[in-house]
Amino acid sequence: MLIAAYKDGAWGDAEILPYGPLHFDPSMTTLHYGQSIFEGIKAFRMKDGSAAIFRPYENLKRFNKSAHRMAMPDVPEFHFIEGMKQLLALEDKWIPNAEEHSMYIRPFMFGTDEVIGVAPSSTYYFMIILSPVGPYFSKPLKIYVEEQFVRAAPGGVGYAKTAGNYAASLYPAKLAREKGFDQILWMDAKEHKYVEECGAMNVFFVLDGKLITPSLNAGTILDDITRKSVIDLAKSLGKTVEERDILIDELVEGHKKGTFTEAFGAGTAVTVSKIEVLQYKDVRISLDVSKMSMADELKQKMAAIKDGSAVDAFGWMVKTNA
Ligand code: PLP
Q1: Rounded Cα gap, residues 90 and 84, in angstroms
Q2: What is the average pLDDT value for the chain, to the nearest integer?
């Protein structure tokens, strides 16, 4: 694991140490006030045997955006990018060489002040840990459209990848699972009419032949890196893509008319995962996953860039130091 400490207004050197437990004072600020952020990134085994990380500079940008919102210091590019490259070089033999497998990279930062009192911490740890991973979901998803609980409101921290957003999602997600659903589709906090995002992924729909996804304007949705990549890829393939507010009623209507043909989630963990059911109130929208050609094409093209079997025309892949 990589670890660097921040104190007296500056970051110390990063060190790579054997993975193991940390010891903290019970008053450590993060445990009480949640000043904690993280990222999720993947490194892939390429066809030529080398390894490469998918768009880590975008994660660095988002990490520091989250840090800013949570009154935490920026993490230097060297610690974040060079740190993960060095760590991956050391653990190179653990980067899997199998379809839909990769090395998950988890950078995170948390406040370490020993004080009971609500204030930004003056000391922090930045760390990176790794784990080899396989596919997140093994089958198409059944999604519950959530109307009671909300994930994020305008002015809040929805766009930040901060621990509290995930803590707040656990109870509603548990209820949805008990009803037989895999994930929640969050709606806007005010009217519960507009679709936002889903668990650990962003959502895409094919409506009237166009690929549509919720816009990020309200600041309530995580600015996803897979989302950006899917949009760029789809545009390069000549698809019409719209980032806009999406009413749940449009999807219900589209389903009735037969013009709502595909739904899928996109994220680092899930890559592209098809949605077969959307449950909204007592309306069950069932989609035929075998006919989701746009999702199939995008998933296959993304995978080919990640393992080096297609040209990386966008310059997304960053080689490790191995
Ligand atoms: N939305 C949320 C809430 C997430 O936690 C994630 C996580 O990875 C995503 C979307 C997908 O974002 P990305 O594509 O950057 O992984």
Answers
A1: 10
A2: 96
